[in-house]
Please model this.
Amino acid sequence: MLKIAGWLMLAGSFPASLAAWGPVYGSVVWLGVLSASALCFTFILSFRPRAAAALTLCAPVFAALSLLWR
Amino acid sequence: MKGTFTQSMAWLHTWSGLIFGWVLFIIFVGGTLAVFDKEITGWMEPELSHVGPLTDEGLAGTIAFLSRTAPDAPSWRFSLPGPRDPAIRTSVRSGKGRGAAETTATLDPSTGDVIETRKTTGGSFFFTLHYSLYAGSMPGIWLVGAAGMAMLAALVTGVITHRRIFKDFFTFRPTSSSQRSWLDAHNVTGVLVLPFYFMIAFTGVVIFYATFMPSGLYALYAKDPAAYFTEIARFSRSGEPAKEKAPLTAIAPLVRAAEKDLGGGSGIWFVQIANPGRTNAQVAIYQRDGARLALTRDHIVFNGVTGAVTDRIITEKPDAIYVYKVMSGLHFAQFGGYTVRWLYFICGVAGSAMIATGLVLFTVKRRRKQGAKDDGSPFFFRLAEALNMASIAGLPVASLAYFWVNRLVPARLAERSEWEVRAFFAIWLLMLAYALLRAFLPTDDREKSIMRGWIGMFSLAAFLSLGLPILNALSGGENLAEAIGGNNWQMASVDITALVCGIVFLIIRGHLRSGSTHRDSRQKKSKQKSPGSTSAPSVAG
Model:
């Protein structure tokens, strides 16, 4: 259930990125942001697993903010 | 090459990765720093911290300066201030073609007065290092191109050999056995940023397509290969300077007209004036990169005497060469502002880490196979250890030293910018010599000797990074507190990045130290018990 929700949100982030950055930059920035955040998350998950769990709860807020700030 | 398909792929991954890994590491670190080339140049020219905004007087002053200092030059070129560079920079070539000497100057955009900055290669040093390794233009570009192809091969073979690519997506076990955690780190940095690596390696090779695969070009443009580039870039040919003189029209109205015509919101990048002061003078005004993803280099051409528009080179309908422009746009990352720049920087750091962990993995694996005391190990593996040390730890030391040299070499020294580059390579060679000594000098514990080399170099790198903001404050730069207070984030972020790097180097050094003491105690224990229990499982697959 969580997994499906995760995949759906991941899929939803793509049109969101296109909307925020325009169709040309959107796809590039989407891949870049995903790569960079996956990288950071892996390191947090490995060294501070509790912080990673807390971060996942904050993630939607950050995501909304980043779209506004752009 | 042997055995199954997967084994052959693993073999290819190991060897193409290793042989080109050292070169690729330099290319990646250079490219990552070149993302912020203008910001680094800004840090290296503290004299520029307080210049005014662009005015019409500034433009007129620039033209006056050029007509005073280079009245007979075939062409002038100057860049206008932008979000990443506050000054006007003029460049005059003594003739046409590649061999012509170039004279540059830095002007205040509000007055057109010359600003006496120190002569520095600045951030473009890392740019040149990135695409040609300072190995001479053509040999360097070919070497980098070969490394790019090897990287593509290593990426494909790496994906094939990584059996559990999706299952291990986020697997990183820093506390498990050393070889396991190196492999995890290599996989994580490799897999998560894979789309970026494919993109950057592929576009990087494509940028020099005409150099690497020139046959088509020579078949069609046998008489004049340069005509091809003139055609695709749609450069306007200006012809030879006319005999009769004529005053140049005022530049400021042309810049405003071009900016309005080009649109895009990214402003004007540079102005190129052919045959200045002659009746056939021609002014081309170029749009700054970043108005779109593709590097289109749109520009407006004016008659230099009357100021009338003679040509508008604006990419409207994508043509075949547009594919190339999109690819180079993706590689050069001039679009999307600082968000995109930082993304490229982070991906570049990850790429450097992927290459570094791959190189280390090679020696860690061999060390395991041969046991701890490998004083009788073949020449090549010791050489690999030394080259790893000199590139992974030595390159950061030399790069940081380059920043230090910028502030420590007297501002008035003759050939100053050449000395900066020479200092970089001298310090790097010193690091190489030290690494070779650590790997080849007779010792009863080779691994300890090598580990000491690593710890020493990372200590030096940490010292140089953490000291950089202090050096900056002491040697005429805006200090970190001032820069943040004055909202000068370009200056502040160089200092902050140096501090972050310093902390990372300290952490690496700490891990190495605890690892080596851990090994010492383990070795003592295994001496009391039975030796030879270190056989590691093969991880090539």
User: Anything to note?
Assistant: The mean pLDDT of chain A is 84. Residues 20 and 66 of chain A are 10 Å apart (CA to CA).
